[in-house]
Specification:
Blueprint (H helix, E strand, L loop, with lengths): L10 E3 L9 E6 L2 E5 L3 E7 L10 E11 L7 E7 L2 E9 L2 E5 L4 E4 L4 E5 L4 E6 L7 E10 L10 E5 L4 E4 L2 E7 L1 E2 L2 E2 L8 E8 L3 E6 L5 E8 L2 E3 L2 E3 L4 E5 L4 E6 L3 E8 L6 E4 L2 E3 L2 H12 L33
Antiparallel strand pairs: 1-26, 2-23, 3-4, 4-5, 5-12, 6-11, 7-10, 7-12, 8-9, 8-11, 10-13, 14-15, 15-18, 16-17, 18-25, 19-24, 20-23, 20-25, 21-22, 21-24, 26-27
Family: Belongs to the pirin family.
GO molecular function: metal ion binding
Organism: Actinocatenispora sera
């Protein structure tokens, strides 16, 4: 998925300086931004208050949207470097195409994991014939220095492990949760899980004390350690947790993100993750001139053009704004 801002900020993120050494309950503000021709998303990472949760550096939550009589998601070919994209659907279908030649229809419960590494381009769109509802999340994971130039790849995992407990079912997207490990490739210690709570559920989910965590309520209201989390909101949970208590009177669908605090500083701009402004400028030039990223075949339409870089110099701001 693309950051389609025409004037995207340059963000410098990373390091442990702003990671609390204790559990917290911080509700982070999101903002509505357009995605492609007909989709609006809630951008929850990066946001005012926090730029990273572990290596998770970007989170868009969209829907549920009624697209029965609309084209749905239409995101033209665009590039990525230095990150992995995680596509996760709760309702609907999305057609993925990339410059490696992969073409994959993604459905709910299936993990679409694209490793950009040195550089890749892809498009995402609702098929011409598609379900009435579209609801999901798109996430990025920053690659550490050792792996950020890894060869690009795309993996489709239709079968993922599920952790169950009294009224809870947690599908493990990436990493390990409660002894269940996703088949998705990771390059730093992290976890992602889709947590469904039945009406009346009151359970404790085991966590890693060295990780920092956040939870998104994709649908339904829930209580996180007796603190209310409204639908569409993201709550940052801090570190030093061995478990989290989850309650839902009427049922809820939550997305759990966690990982070891990301030590390295990264520069994010548009759809690139790098280590300096000069690198970002090089990536932008290479994309606009047709170098480095390859060609996405099968998409009917023009590719995106990278916007103009901001004139202001980079200002390192750590993990929070």
């Amino acid at each position: 998925m693309s950051n389609l801002d025409t004037r995207p900020d340059v963000l410098v993120c990373g390091g442990r300086r702003d990671v609390p050494a204790e559990p917290v309950h911080e509700v982070l503000p999101g903002r509505m931004v357009p995605l492609g021709e007909s989709t609006m998303v809630r951008r929850l990472l990066p946001t005012l208050g926090r730029r990273l949760v572990g290596a998770w550096c970007f989170l868009d939550h969209y829907g549920p949207d009624d697209i029965a009589d609309r084209p749905g998601m239409q995101v033209a070919p665009h590039p990525h470097t230095g990150l992995q994209t995680v596509s996760w659907l709760l309702s609907g279908t999305i057609q993925h195409r990339d410059s490696l030649g992969h073409e994959q229809l993604l459905a709910p419960g299936q993990l679409g994991l694209m490793t950009a590494g040195h550089g890749i381009a892809h498009s995402e769109q609702s098929p011409v014939s598609h379900p009435a509802l579209l609801h999901g999340a798109q996430l990025w994971v920053a690659l550490p220095e050792r792996y950020r130039e890894v060869a690009p790849a795309f993996d489709h995992h239709p079968d993922l492990p599920v952790v169950t407990d009294r009224g809870l079912a947690a599908t493990v997207l990436l990493g390990t949760l409660a002894g269940a490990t996703s088949p998705g490739t990771t390059y730093s210690p992290l976890v992602g899980a889709d947590v469904t709570l039945d009406p009346g559920a009151d359970v404790r989910l085991p966590l890693e004390p060295d990780f920092e965590y956040a939870m998104l309520s994709a649908s339904g209201a829930a209580e996180i350690d007796a603190t209310e989390l409204a639908p569409g909101a993201l709550m940052y949970l801090g570190t030093d947790r061995r478990e989290v208590r989850l309650r839902a009177e009427s049922g809820a669908r939550l997305l759990l993100l966690g990982g070891e605090p990301f030590d390295e500083q990264i520069v994010m701009w548009w759809n690139f993750v790098g280590r300096s402004g000069d690198e970002i400028a090089t990536y932008r030039e290479q994309w606009n001139t047709g170098d480095r990223f390859g060609v996405v075949h099968g998409y009917q339409g023009d590719r995106l053009i990278a916007p103009t870089l901001p004139a202001a110099p980079l200002k390192p701001r750590g993990r929070t704004r």
